[in-house]
Amino acid sequence: MPTSRPVGLAFLRRNHWLPARQPSPASFSVSLGQHLAFTLACAAVLMALYSLLRLALLLYNGEQIGTASATILAEAFFNGLRFDLRLVVYVCAPLLLAVASRRAMRVRALLRTWLTLFASLTLFLGVLELDFYHEFHQRLNGLVFQYLKEDPQTVLSMLWHGFPVLRYLFAWLLATLSLGWLFGRLDRLTRSPAVAGREAGSRWPFRALAFSICLALALLAVRGTLRQGPPLRWGDAFTTDSMFANRLGLNGSLTLLDAAHSQLSDQREHLWKATLASGEARQTVRQMLLTNADRLVDEGSAAVRRDYSPPLGGTLPARNVVVILMESFAGHYVGALGAPGGITPNFDRLAQEGLLFTRFFSNGTHTHQGMFATMACFPNLPGFEYLMQTPEGGHRFSGLPQLLGARGYDSLYVYNGDFAWDNQSGFFGSQGMRNFIGRDDFVDPVFSDPTWGVSDQDMFERAAQELERRSEAGQPFYALLQTLSNHTPYALPEHLPVAPVSGFGELDQRLTAMRYADWALGRFFERASHSPYFKDTLFVVVGDHGFGSREQLTEMDLLRFNVPLLLIGPGVQEKFGARRDIVGTQLDIVPTIMGRLGGAVRHQCWGRDLLDQPAGSPGFGVIKPSGGDQTVALVSGDRVLVQPPGLAAKLYRYRLGSDPASQPLAAAPDEAVLKRQLSAFLQAATASLLEDSAGMDDGEPAR
């Protein structure tokens, strides 16, 4: 007695939830017209899918819409169709190639499987991108690969504890099954039983003509434009004044594909391309950085190596230095810089005791860039965004470890997390730091985040103990203290010592973590102020980077870079006042510290002593986001020049504080000068890094 087919499988195949068993080629036929109809129908499904993903991205990040009108958003969706069509051509390429063979046109099961798998993959990326954009205000890019290269356990823990992973996976699986069913349905609607003579229209002359037409149309769709010159580029989506709408017009799968290509290509392809003669670039950057207190040395072999003699009137009676790098401490939410909501009451109180810089910026948008810019005073450059993990990161920079190590200072680095992340121990160890206290060195912490490490409260408590111990030893010291609690998944102690933040919508959780970090900072200073070393110590409090907000002022997300810089030390306010509006970045921290300690010093920092500049100087800073985004900008005074790759530079006047805004400036008389300064700075710094002449010379630094 023959065995009947299982009822369950029959039901699933009958309803197209599973691919039907592939009939023999003789059991059904596919004419050329039917195959083209199947291809067009599947392409339409994919186009609809990617438009729905764009709509989901819009709704999920709706707070980014700002003042963008419905017309602008419609333009973004129209621009997106061009990028989506390019991706659809890639997906449908096997179907288009099948036109050349009648046998290939009949292999529907294989074609449906390919379509379902590819659609499922891009759907998964679309779901992932909802929170990726929410966090970074960028479409999928090289940051994805960077996180994958880090400790997988930490990354998976961050995702599991920070996002509704199971809910996303269930939705993705359900949508994948639906897509499989839909492609199966289209398959059945576009084929028929084999009948003699039915495939007359599929003979080779017709197929050859159809294949030629399909190939031409596919190439046109992939180019995305009828213009001469380069094909469709990301800049073609930037057609409005809304940065969110412009990025909405891109396709995340394509931007990730571009990032993958960049990851596999030679690093030198991403370096800043020289546009000036090397001598002109060096001379320009020297004019930007050097003052009357600097004397250039090694002029022929180093770009900006100099002996700096700080004016005696600008020094402070400080013996020790403590740098506090605050995770995601966005200036846009700091009360002392004009933000409402009382997010940072302790920092605001401390700002009344020290010197606050109101136009200060991070050099990048990730912590590791804040680390090497702040401590090694070297910029975040195109092609070297992950400097601490590259061979060039082993160069001997003229940062705080070298300069103070040469003066006999003891060193200390206290951090909530694992020093293996971002190669911190390797980088800072090679620069001269010797004493590291990380997550495995804390005993009985108040709270330990399963993803990153101990709480900010624990970090500051241990740091206070270590600083007191070093003070008793009598040796001068410098320390780097780094917070971590204000980071996805924002795991905080169960019994919070602060009231949770409310009224900021999706930012409530993040701002609660920022308020908690601020509380821990205040608690540290309360203890430190009663310690003997306090009166002899210069404290530098700075954000490692900011985070995205609803206002995105230019193509460069300027508020993501805006962080506070606060100096607290003996006699700071008496000599320098309570606030400074000069523009600065993390590159300026080391020269500013050395200027307060006094004594001649030889260095090659790519920043300046912010407290030894001519009156009325607007200051300047060069900034660049992390990941594969090669956009760069020069901030000077209340203006910012933004240079996207391959597009014309734009100059804006900006305003920070409680009511941030920007205004495009046309035909500014010094725009050409700003462009030359930006290019010269990046070109000279890149050349110095490649030549290994970006830091100290072979001799001891001058004292």
Question: In words, what does this structure look like?
Answer:
The N and C termini lie far apart (about 100 Å). Strand 19 (about 650-655) and strand 20 (about 660-665) form a beta hairpin. The chain is about 40% helix and about 10% strand. The strands form 5 sheets. Strands 9-8-10-5-11-12-6-13 form an 8-stranded mixed β-sheet, with helices on both faces. Strands 16-17-18-19-20 form a 5-stranded antiparallel β-sheet, covered by helices on one side. The protein has a 3-stranded antiparallel β-sheet with strand order 3-4-15, with no helix packed on it. It is built from 21 helices and 20 strands. Mean pLDDT is about 85; it is low at about 1-5 and about 700-703.
List keywords for this structure.
703 residues; alpha/beta; eight-stranded mixed beta sheet; five-stranded antiparallel beta sheet; 21 helices; 42% helix; disordered N terminus; disordered C terminus
What is this structure, in a nutshell?
The protein is an alpha/beta fold.
Q: Give the strand order, joined by hyphens, for the main sheet.
A: 9-8-10-5-11-12-6-13
How much helical structure, as a percent, in the residues?
40-55%
The total count of strands amounts to 20
- What fraction of the residues are assigned to beta strands by DSSP? 5-15%
Count of helical stretches:
21
Query: How is the biggest beta sheet arranged?
Result: 8 strands, mixed
Evaluate the radius of gyration. Answer: 29 Å
Which blocks of ≥5 consecutive residues have pLDDT under 50? 1-5, 698-703
